[in-house]
Write a structure and sequence with these properties.
By secondary structure, the chain is mostly helical. The chain has 4 helices and 2 strands; from the N terminus they run αααββα. Helix content is 71%, strand content 3%.
């Protein structure tokens, strides 16, 4: 299990880097390399998905966790980085249904879908 957690942390870093690189570069219309702090969130999510994969939980409770944990990781990371370093890693303040500009419903749903697809289609094969 430990090896799967490490492997999925690394897969999360890679997938997060690719998503962040493409999204930020398209937004800025130039190549933008994501910060390590941004992509670490995806690594932690990959590790978390393996962790809950091995727990004996109902599918509904797993889906609830898959929705809540990424939002929590994103909020804690964004909030602490802003409070400590006074730097916004991202700004969702113009998005509908945002909270402090750090999390928003649109991106929470996107990451929920990505996490569910990864969990049910790829995790069992790794």
């Amino acid at each position: 299990m430990f090896l799967k957690i490490i492997l999925n942390f690394l897969v999360g870093l890679l997938v997060g880097f690719i998503f962040e690189f493409i999204y930020r570069s398209l937004q800025a219309k130039k190549l933008i390399r994501p910060r390590l702090i941004n992509i670490q969130m995806y690594g932690f999510m990959g590790a978390f998905l393996v962790f809950i994969y091995f727990l004996d939980l109902s599918p509904v409770f797993k889906l609830i966790l898959i929705f809540i944990v990424p939002i929590s990781i994103e909020f804690i990371t964004g909030y602490l980085y802003f409070k400590i370093k006074k730097v916004r890693l991202w700004d969702y303040s113009k998005e509908k249904f945002n909270f402090l500009g750090i999390i928003c419903l649109r991106f929470s749903l996107i990451w929920f879908i990505v996490s569910v697809v990864y969990y049910y289609l790829f995790l069992s094969k790794i």
